[in-house]
TrEMBL record:
Keywords assigned by UniProt, alphabetized: Signal
Residue ranges, annotated region (Disordered): 323-343
Protein name: YncI copper-binding domain-containing protein
Range of residues in the leader sequence: 1-22
Record-annotated YncI copper-binding domain positions: 26-176
InterPro entries named in the record: LpqE-like, Lxx211020-like, PCuAC_sf, UCP037139, YcnI-copper_dom, YcnI-like_sf
The organism's taxonomic lineage, starting at the top: Bacteria, Pseudomonadati, Pseudomonadota, Alphaproteobacteria, Hyphomicrobiales
Pfam family, any one: DUF1775
Amino acid sequence: MSNRYLRAALLAALPLGLTTSAALGHAVLERKEATPNAAYRGVVQIMHGCEGAATTRVTVTIPEGVIGAKPMPKPGWQLGTTKGAYAKAYQSFHGKIAEGVTAITWSGGSLGDDEVDEFTFFARITDEFAPGATVYFPVEQECAGGGDKGGIAWTQIPQAGQDAHDLKTPAPGVKIVAAKTIEKLAAKGDAPTAPVKAGDLTIETPWLRATPGGAKVAGGYVSVSNAGAQPDTLIGATIPQAGRGEIHAMSTEGGVMKMAPVEGGLIIAPGGSIALKPGGLHLMFLDLTAGLKAGATVQGALVFERAGTVPVTFGVAPIGAQSPAAQAPGGQGTASAAAEHQH
C-alpha cells in the first residue's frame, strides 16, 4: 500500500469528533489492546514530520514489564537496538530472563512531512500489567533540518486521573484487557480473521484441537507462505496455557504411528509454503496448565528465524477435528488425534 493510500486509510479510521490536526499530531500504535502474558505486535504509525521537515529517525522505548522485544527490519532504514537489564527477572516460555531490548531505533531513511509510515516490533506483555492498565511506549521522532524542526518527543505519560488527550506530546498507549474479552469479540465475529502478514510471510488459519480433561499436550496447525527472496524458518510456537511449543512430525512405520520433534525447524523457501495439519507435520504444545475448549480462541505466537515472534490468534476446534470447522463423529478423536495426545 502506498503512503498516500495508507494516509487516507488512517484518516478514515479516526474516531468521530477527533480533528485531523489533533489526530495527525501524534505518533500512535495501530493495535490499541493487548492481553497479559501474551505476545504483542506493536505497529508505530508516524503521521507527519516536524514543521515541514522529513522524519529521519524513529526510536521506541520498551517499558519495564514488556520483554523479548524484537524489531522488524524496514527497507531503506538502518536498524539498531539498545539492550539492558530488566528491573527484575521475568518468566518466559524458555525460563527466567533478566535482560533484553529496551529501545529500538530505525534511522537513515526519509519520511516526508506529507507522508505516513509504520515501524513494527514484536514483544511480550507480562502479567505485571492487569486488565484495565495502560502500557505506554514513548516514541522519539527526529527530523531533518535541526532547530525547531529537529524532532518531537512523544513521551508524555498522563498522571492518575489525567486525560491523555490533554497532553501536547503524549506517548502511545496500549490498553490491557482480559483474554476472555478478546475471545468474546472473536465469537461475535469482531476479531480480525484475515491472514497475518509478517514481512514477506503470510500466516493463515492457525488453529488448535480442544483437549480432553487432564490432557498435558495439544496439537496445533497452520499454513505459512513466503513471498520474499530469502528463506525463513519456523522454529517454534507459544500459547499461554503451555510450558513450551515444538514442531513435530508424525509417521507410520509397520502400522505403528510415531511422532518426533523436527530438529532445526521448518524452512519456508522463497516462493514456497508449508502446511501443518493433522496426521503429518504439526505444532505440539506441551506441559499444559489449562485445557482448551472448542469454540474458544487463544492468543499465541509463531516464532521464525527471520521474522521473529509473530502474534496470532488460534481458533479451537473440537477434539478429533480434521479442520478448523470440522467435528469428529460423536466428538471422538481419530487415531492421529489420539496419538498426538498420548505423545
